[in-house]
Design brief:
The structure holds 2 protein chains of 2 kinds. Chain A is mainly α. Chain A contains 10 helices and no strands. The chains are: A mainly alpha, B alpha/beta. At the A-B interface, helix 1 and helix 5 of A face strand 5, helix 2 and helix 4 of B. Chain B: Belongs to the ABC transporter superfamily.
Chain lengths: 223, 270
């Protein structure tokens, strides 16, 4: 599966499909840190970044998983030893790219963006929130790929609409039971993230896993 | 490998493409799959390759190493032929020399440095065949492998298929052009009316679909049965018309292939 993951990453990088989401990431980071974040507000900035970059993570996941033409996916299935391995390799490649994006999002403000260097604990909490964001984004992107949604227009609208819906639902009282983007932004801003980090991580990972399980299930009949 | 009571449809409310198919593929056998456009040949190949599970029934005993060449090789990929084949070789754990050997055999050495996007249909078909043969496969599935191939490769491919079978591999070929019509010992499998009919080492009798609908019968020289149908003889030809098409000799192969691909019976007279 590692070899197929490498093949998919190589195709993604060579096809230049990596550029649009990468440019989106850099633009958003440019906006987030256009003014220096004052000391003590670093975790809040990380929480906002992790929540708002979900759409970029979803975009990168979708574009990577759609890099291979449909017939090549079939060829890859036989070459890798079965449909499950092809699907797994695709998701692994999407996670790899999004991990790279998340690392850029965490490191960039340390170089330019924060007025003072935050405590290592805050950097670690920021990294955890970005991991939650990339998990949700990867799942959302996978569910809007070509095998699941053949229409590019419907797929892009679902991706954007899904992200907006995720934000809006997380504003409501049931928000903590969905992917709790707004709750983690609020908690970080109020300095109360540690108290809610565990349930927030559990909810975000649960819904990400559910999205990925739905993707794997749908791909069984949509090779 | 065995398909037991296999039925398949693409969606819960969609029409059945195949129903209650019973099929046994022996190691070392070569199976030519024919049927008109939309009959379900590609669906059968997908079930055999394991790309999709059957809606009902079961598929058992599928060999571990499966090779698959699609009917249209996807050239929209950012690799040269050699880089692509190197990836596929690593994926299959094949010998690094295997792709080069197959390229020499299928007359594709001159393609190795070209980007996939620059390949013609026939050249792309060769790349698809090469990657499917890396391994080598225990089950080889070829979807219209002869389309667009040059004469030399078209002549070589049956020999390659024969070698896979001689080593105990099973070869299934969707073949609109009936290039395997004289392949010794080949089983012939007709997909029609949601059913699969197998005739061991002989051609299945095909239902007459009437004027303009797809029958895959016929050969370059024409069997007696096909020639009789094309000439309007016998009871099965009552609803058929004979049209004479004159083309340049250089275009004859292409026109013949197109007509066969559209399901028409074709007889070459010169």
């Amino acid at each position: 599966m590692t070899r197929l993951t490498r093949f998919k990453l190589s195709a993604y990088a060579r096809s230049h499909r990596l550029f649009p989401p990468a440019i989106g990431l850099l633009l958003m980071l440019g906006i987030f840190y256009s003014t220096l974040t004052p000391p003590g507000k670093e975790l809040s900035a990380y929480a906002d970044s992790a929540g708002l970059l979900i759409v970029v993570f979803a975009w990168a996941s979708r574009s990577l998983l759609d890099t291979e033409p449909a017939a090549q996916r079939l060829v890859s299935m036989t070459a890798a030893g079965g449909p499950g391995r092809e699907i797994g390799a695709g998701l692994l490649a999407a996670f790899t790219v999004n991990l790279m994006f998340a690392a850029i999002a965490v490191v960039t403000p340390l170089l330019h963006g924060f007025a003072a260097t935050p405590a290592p604990g805050d950097v670690a909490r920021g990294a955890v929130l970005h991991l939650l964001g990339l998990s949700a984004g990867t799942a959302l992107g996978a569910l809007t790929t070509h095998p699941i949604m053949p229409s590019p227009a419907a797929s892009m609208l679902t991706l954007l609409g899904g992200y907006v819906a995720l934000l809006l639902v997380s504003l409501t009282p049931v928000g903590r039971f969905t992917v709790p983007v707004m709750p983690w932004m609020r908690a970080a801003n109020d300095g109360a993230l540690d108290a809610v980090l565990l349930p927030i991580a559990a909810a975000a990972l649960f819904w990400s896993a559910a999205g990925l399980a739905a993707y794997v299930r749908l791909r069984r009949t949509r090779p | 490998m065995r398909l037991s009571q296999v039925s398949f449809r693409y969606s819960r409310r969609g029409p059945w493409i195949l129903e209650d198919v019973e099929l046994t593929l022996r190691p070392g056998s070569v199976v030519e799959v024919t049927g008109r456009n939309g009959a379900g040949k590609s669906t059968l190949l997908r079930l055999l390759a394991g790309f999709v599970p059957p809606t009902r029934g079961s598929v058992s005993g599928r060999p571990r190493v499966v090779g698959y060449a699609p009917d249209v090789f996807p050239t929209g990929q950012p690799f040269t032929v050699s880089a692509y084949l190197a990836h596929m070789t690593r994926l299959r754990g094949a010998s690094p020399a295997a792709a080069g050997d197959l390229a020499r055999r299928l007359n594709a050495v001159h393609l190795l440095d070209l980007p996939l996007g620059d390949l013609s249909k026939g050249s792309a078909q060769k790349v698809g065949l090469i990657q499917s043969l890396l391994g080598p496969p225990d089950l080889l599935i070829l979807d219209e492998p002869f389309a667009g191939l040059d004469e030399r490769t078209r002549a070589e491919l049956p020999a390659v298929i024969g070698e896979i079978a001689a080593h105990g591999g099973t070869v299934v070929v969707s073949d609109h052009q009936n290039q395997l019509r004289e392949f010794p010992g080949a089983d012939h499998c007709l997909v029609a009316d949601r059913a699969v009919t197998v005739h061991s080492a002989g051609r299945p009798a095909e239902p007459d679909p009437g004027l303009g609908s797809g029958s895959d019968s016929g050969s370059g020289s024409g069997s007696e049965q096909d020639a009789g149908r094309a000439a309007g003889q016998g009871p099965a030809t009552d609803r058929r018309a004979v049209i004479e098409v004159l083309v340049d000799p250089g275009e004859a192969d292409e026109v013949e292939q197109k007509l066969r691909a559209d399901g028409y019976t074709v007889r070459r007279t010169s």
